[in-house]
Amino acid sequence: EAAQKRNVNVNLIVPTYDKDIIKEDFFRNESLATNFKFRMKTIVPAIKETHMIKTTFLIIDRKSLFIIDVKDDSKENFTEAVGFATFHRSKSRTESYSFIFDTLWRQADLHESLRGANNNLLYAYEKLKEHDALEKEFIDLAAHELRTPSQSIIGYSEMLKALPERNKQYEEAISRNAERLYSLVTNMLSVARIESQTMKLNKTVFDLNLKIQNVIRDISQQVDSDKRDIVKINFNPIGKINIIADKEKIFQVFANLLNNALKFTDYGTITVSAKLGDKTNEAIVTIKDSGPGIDPEIIPHLFSKFKTKSEKGLGLGLYISKSIVETHHGKIEAYNNPDSKGATFIVTLPLK
After folding, report:
1. Tens digit of pLDDT for each residue in 195-208?
2. Closest to 298 in 3D by CA, of 260, 325, 268
């Protein structure tokens, strides 16, 4: 109250006892936080309670000093708790107590700095443990995912030598697994560039509709013939949508999204549409599948790394797609369809 009403600066140091630590919420008191003329710190480390006389002193403008001896601080009555009280204007005595106060204040400052540094170290340590766990998980998943197509390529290559009359069938299988291997390596390289913030865009002008058609054509050729008959990709572009963007990375975005839709759609239709936004300065691409939809547990982390319910893949496609789209100053969103059949992904990209 003195600091606020009389417009004076008040610095207060409070001792803490090992059995009676002052609660943190006391220091976070709103009235204290908004009163910039009142500052309070605690003496650390905590001291033990004793029956020895303790001293409370008040220094005013470093010119006068008021000292109160506390005989028994367990007493609720002030007069019973204190002993002698003296007031001094002696320069030497006032300076001595000022030096004690300044030393305790610097000690409290140092403790707060150390505590803050310690909290930062603990936070960094937890993040490092989390990173190590993710890295180990990534290595395990990558090793498994890379091994599968590699083994398939080796196996089909050996059968191609043994049964040359079936070369077309084996060549298709080798090509399919090579494409899968290439896709995995591309995704891993993309993640490395995103994490190191070294991903660069090579922007050119191109027709977005034509690029989506190329993605659909390439992906359709990689899909198993059995699935090709029961899952259809519908895309009926109207005119051109010219945008300025990185062609290869935009191809990667829609390849990831369509592969994702195919992975979770056992039969039915995947509908792709592209249009100009109402303001005509952005392109909006929608991909709607007829699969089981997005698992509710995944939705909050849908665009994070390694978050997938699929037994295949590393869970990197959506993370990479989101990073690429946002680097282009666009946005990507997803939701489950109202009819409980499938999910819809919407990509919005600026035209320039």
Report:
1. 777 878 889 999 99
2. 260
Burial 257-288 (b: 16+ CB within 10 A, else e): bbbbbbbbbeeeebbbbbeeeeeeebbbbebb
Q: Which of 120, 98, 119, 122 is nearest to 24 (CA)?
A: 119
Options 3.30.565.10, 3.40.50.150, 3.40.50.300, 3.90.1310.10; which CATH number does 201-352 get?
Answer: 3.30.565.10
Contact present, 287 and 272 (Cβ < 8 Å): yes
- Select from 110, 96, 99, 98 the least CA-distant residue to 43: 110
Paired with 285 in beta bridges are: 274, 347
How far, rounded to the nearest angstrom, does the alpha carbon of residue 228 sit from its chain's CA centroid?
38
Angle between helices 208-222 and 247-264 (to 10 degrees): 50
Spell out the domain ranges in the chain.
Answer: 2-120, 201-352
Is the pTM for the entire model greater than 0.85? no
pLDDT in tens, 280-324: 689 999 999 988 888 888 888 888 776 666 655 556 788 889 999
